[in-house]
Here is the input.
Amino acid sequence: MKIVVDDLSGPEIAEFLAEHLEQMRSLSPLESKHALDLDDLRKPDVTFWSVLDGTELVGCGALKALDTEHAELKSMRTSTARKRGGIASFLLEHVLAEARRMRFTRISLETGSAEFFRPARRLYEKFGFTYCEPFADYRPDPHSVFMTRTL
Here is the structure.
């Protein structure tokens, strides 16, 4: 497997992210959906990575700069057929290393509070994230949990 910076111009990643947005909309009310669309992921303050197994797209994730020291983890997703196969851990290790290289000292994230998101929360806990109050422009929301860690 390899991880590449993706400019989000290909149809495969567009479809992969459209499925992600559709799934997030089905799990959370619209006002609690914080996944970024393609246009937002293409902004200069976001670095986006795709995980490829050969030529197959199997995962993705992004890092959004909040300021010079704090970044937000966004759009972490593994293809349904490849869940629980280590792809998310492989990608998260990469993103954390890149965040350090970019000289961020803190990385935070928002994820869902529903049972569906429990595996994601466990993954983040395994990587040293702890629960925190809302950050950046987030507000308290019963459908969201917030996590952070220092680098």
